[in-house]
């Protein structure tokens, strides 16, 4: 299989997975659903992913990398980072809820690993705190679980504030 074909197949699997998350909870999505939606055989799925949790991990890591890379390349403030995360969550409300309702702990683990890796290269206030902490894993878990919970409550309508107000509040809290 050519490299372009591999890239295209992974893209098709990812797109199918994200489409399924629009209408189904993560726990109800099966490998069969993903394969059927992406028009591939089951063995093709397993060539790229161990299971749907591996797919979730790779998809969320890719999204996070894109967000961090965009902010880092523009050298914008952490305000822009929160704004970009909220834009993404706002645009993908149902998939976000379908993931967080089912696999909250897994999402925190993935996000914590992501924060740990990016704290080595980013210069935002959270990354600095993680780097200088004696317990950096604890710090990553703390920040990621808090952010996910805040995003989830905002999407669920439990915080009656605008995206801009939430961005500014997060900025102040994380300084």
Strand content: under 5%
Which series of helices and strands comes N to C? HHHHHHHHH
Shape summary: globular
Instruction: Give the total of beta strands.
Output: 0
Query: Averaged pLDDT, please?
Result: 88
Helical segment count:
9
Description:
The structure is a single chain. The protein has 175 residues and is an all-alpha fold. The relative contact order is 0.11. The longest helix has 27 residues. The protein starts with a helix and ends with a helix. Helix content is 80%, strand content 0%. The model has no long low-confidence stretch (mean pLDDT 88). The protein is built from nine helices and no strands.
Task: List descriptors.
175 residues; mainly alpha; globular
Task: Describe the secondary structure blueprint for this structure.
Layout: H1 3-23, H2 31-38, H3 42-48, H4 52-74, H5 78-91, H6 93-119, H7 125-132, H8 136-155, H9 163-174
Helix pairs in contact: 1-2, 1-6, 4-6, 5-9, 6-7, 6-8, 7-8
């Amino acid at each position: 299989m050519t490299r372009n074909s591999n890239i295209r197949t992974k893209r098709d699997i990812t797109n199918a997975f994200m489409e399924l998350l629009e209408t189904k909870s993560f726990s109800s999505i099966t490998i069969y659903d993903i394969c059927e939606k992406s028009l591939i055989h089951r063995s093709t799925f397993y060539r790229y992913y161990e299971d749907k949790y591996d797919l979730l991990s790779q998809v969320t890591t890719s999204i996070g990398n894109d967000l961090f890379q965009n902010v880092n390349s523009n050298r914008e403030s952490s305000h822009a980072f929160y704004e970009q995360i909220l834009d993404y969550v706002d645009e993908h409300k149902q998939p976000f809820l379908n993931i967080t309702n089912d696999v909250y702990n897994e999402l925190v683990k993935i996000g914590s690993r992501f924060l740990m890796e990016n704290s080595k290269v980013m210069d935002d206030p959270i990354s600095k705190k993680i780097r200088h902490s004696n317990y950096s894993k604890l710090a990553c878990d703390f920040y990621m679980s808090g952010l996910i919970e805040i995003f989830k409550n905002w999407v669920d309508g439990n915080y009656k504030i605008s995206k801009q107000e939430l961005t500014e509040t997060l900025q102040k809290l994380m300084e």
